[in-house]
Specification:
The chain has 171 residues and is an alpha/beta fold. 40% of the residues lie in helices and 21% in strands. The protein is built from 6 helices and 6 strands. The protein has helices at residues 13-24, 61-74, 91-98, 101-106, 124-139, 157-168, and strands at residues 2-7, 29-34, 47-55, 58-59, 78-84, 109-114. Strands 1, 2, 3, 4, 5 and 6 form a 6-stranded mixed beta sheet that branches.
């Protein structure tokens, strides 16, 4: 199977997940495409994997633009989507909002692979927002202790393996 992993990244987490996914799909031909650099010729691939981060509750513009531009084509492919976000419990809400209904319903897999709130990965306003959210999680309790109802997001290796299995057709 020839697979294109097409992703958009801001802080590098979506790229990191693309690279980990490629390792899990090592028995297949997998090519990575960073949307800030290039787009693949979709017709050259059997399966497409589209990954994007969520910022302020929305997929970043490059990812939204790619999905919108290719929506009519994507419906005829085996397509899987992954989202990287800091709030995993909101993943389904984000997916439904970003992926058009017909594409959502025809997807072979849709998954959240985790996220990162490491300020050094970001610049400008994104860095300030990440620092604020991180401070709320780590010091949000009444006496400045970590909140018991929240933890810092991380890349979830188990989700990547399960996602790769769905792409390979393993249930």
């Amino acid at each position: 199977m020839k697979i294109a992993v097409i992703y958009a990244s801001v802080g590098g987490t979506t790229r990191e997940c693309a690279e980990l996914l490629k390792k899990d799909l090592k028995t297949h031909t997998v090519e990575l495409f960073d949307l800030s650099k290039s787009e693949p010729d979709l017709s050259e691939y059997d399966t497409l994997v589209i990954g994007f981060p969520i910022r302020m509750g929305k997929a970043i513009k490059r990812a939204r633009g790619f999905i919108k531009k290719h929506a009519d084509e994507l419906i005829s492919y085996r397509v899987a989507y992954y989202i990287c976000c800091g709030f995993v419990d909101c993943f389904e809400e984000y997916a439904v909002k970003v992926i058009p209904r017909a594409l959502y319903e025809s997807a072979i897999a849709i998954s959240c692979l985790g996220g990162s709130l490491e300020p050094s990965r970001f610049k400008g306003l994104d860095r300030l927002v990440v620092k604020a959210v991180r401070a709320e999680i780590l010091g949000g309790g009444e006496n400045g202790e970590q909140r018991g109802d929240m933890s810092l997001p991380t890349v979830m290796d188990e989700n990547i393996s399960q996602f790769a299995d769905k792409i390979k057709g393993v249930e």
